[in-house]
Amino acid sequence: METEFSNMERAEVLTQALPYIKKYSGKIVVIKYGGNAMVNEELKQQVMEDVTLLWLIGVKVVLVHGGGPEISETMKRLGKQSQFVGGLRVTDKETVDIVQMVLSGKVNKTLVNLLQMKGGHAVGVSGIDGGILEATMKDETLGYVGQITKVRPQPILDLLEKNYIPVVSTVASDRQGNTYNINGDTAAAYIAGALHAERLIMMTDIAGILRDRDDPSTLIPALTVSQAKQLFDEGTISGGMIPKVDCCIEAIEKGVNHVVIMDGRVPHAILMELLTDEGAGTMVLGDE
Q1: In 57-107, which residue ranges form alpha helices assigned H by DSSP?
Q2: Which end of the chain is more exposed for a tag (fewer CB within 10 A), N or C?
Q3: Is residue 20 a part of any domain in this protein?
Q4: Catalytic option among 118, 244, 254, 263
Q5: Which of 27-31, 78-82, 149-153, 275-279 has the lowest average pLDDT?
Q6: How many distinct structural domains can be found in the chain?
Q7: 254 an active-site residue?
């Protein structure tokens, strides 16, 4: 049953958010967006509302997005089979063209459009624009999957300064002009590090880091980098969570203050994380 809020309750909610608005206004927050929250149309609308709201209260939001399901769907329509090794898409020359087309074209511009419909001012760029992401081949067996070698954050900073929401698709290039597909989480960690972001929010398809992966009630609300490394050794962090938590540690080591892994399937999870006492998901912190 839907709860009706009185005007008094609404005002109360807003005043409770005030210290958080004060804390994040003028600060850079990088949001890695993908997975389920991107495929579900209703959730997509809510994420765009959250991003626009943060932008309107003065948070410098940078949206970094993937688009795996869209790429797979397009490849299928073109009669090409998707192949994955260790969670990374095997990317031949033809596939990297499809990746660039889908990510920097369709997905990027759809998100820019949605943000503008919600009242935000957004500009879409790819990692290739302004040389934001430079990369080299990660592993020949994977083809054009890139390992980031350099981040030039200036184009993103310029957009933030002019009060735009930068929407960044995760493709990169090298000095020979080759294009590379970059893992979205990795790209977000490197970009957030180069921007010295206050916070990096990684939207995933699970509640956060769990002590027991089958039991959402075992969510770990916060842990330090060394505690995370210990959980690796114990095998608590396993499977698909390994690269995600690796990216969190990478971001902290590159200068991000806090990284949060959260469930992108929860409506308005971003606002719950940034503007309430509760928070959402698991926060990873430096050891200091």
Answers
A1: 68-77, 93-100
A2: N
A3: no
A4: 244
A5: 275-279
A6: 1
A7: no
Q: Tell me if 14 is assigned to some domain.
A: no
d(CA 122, CA 254): 26
Catalytic residue, from 66, 68, 124, 143: name it.
68
Residue 265 has pLDDT above 90, yes or no: no
| Amino acid, res. 84 | F
Looking up residue 204, the CATH number of its domain turns out to be 3.40.1160.10
User: Which residue do the tokens 């977000």 mark?
Assistant: 188
Residue of 50, 129, 185, 263 marked active site: 185
Q: How far apart are CA 205 and CA 263, in angstroms?
A: 5
- Domain residue limits at 224: 25-285
What are 146-176's pLDDT values in tens digits?
999 999 999 999 999 999 999 999 999 999 9
Please tell me the distance from the alpha carbon of residue 166 to that of residue 38, in angstroms, as a whole number: 17
In a domain, 85, yes or no: yes
Residue 140 lies in a domain: yes
Torsion sign (Cα): 49, 52, 58, 61: positive
Per-residue model confidence as pLDDT tens digits over 219-239: 898 999 999 988 888 888 877
Q: Which residues contact 58 (CB under 8 A, 6 or more apart)?
A: 21, 24, 25, 26
Question: Strands of 171-173's sheet, edge to edge?
Answer: 146-151, 133-137, 171-173, 179-181
Token pair listed for 72: 């797979």
Determine whether 185 is an active site residue: yes
